[in-house]
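User: I'm putting together notes for a lab meeting next week and I want to include a structural view of one of the chains we've been expressing. I don't have a solved structure, so I'd like a prediction I can at least talk through. The sequence is below, exactly as it appears in our construct file.
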Amino acid sequence: MDQAASLAEMGMASAAWAAAKPHDAAIVAAGGTRSFAELHERANRLADILRRAGLEPGDGLAIICGNGPTFVEAYLAAMRIGLRLTPVNWRLAPAEAAYIVENCDARALIAEASSAEAGLACAPGPLRVRLMAGGAAEGFADYDPSLRAPRRTIRRPRSTEP
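Assistant: Thanks for the context. Below is the predicted structure for the 162-residue chain, given as structure tokens.
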């Protein structure tokens, strides 16, 4: 199996593209442009945020946003951790979006500011992470600054064997 196929199986296909074409555009959208290296790094940072919040393989991540960088970053992060991703149509009424988020057993929610009303309608109960992309909202951490925060290094214990 070649390296790209192996990385894709682990949810890390963006790593191969980030290595091969780091400065080429991976996403060009109204919501922003990302190079392959930026996309890969931001997906890694989001995966770290979700893991630190205690999300594990099989947990749910709901996302209320249009097509753009936020969606792709969430998709890649979910694949890396093994999360179930539930995209929620950003055009739904807030009560409809809240119903889906609450019934998909999401442990994390990412919403765009353009869908803030729908995101705010979602009960925070089981949600360990609530991120708002493109703006601020009560009860939500700001998505972009969260991804820019320094990554925590996880130190592995040193072996005591000689």
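A couple of points you could mention at the meeting. The helical segments are 3-9, 13-20, 36-52, 69-81, 94-103, 116-121, 143-148. The chain is about 40% helix and 20% strand.

User: Perfect, that's what I needed.
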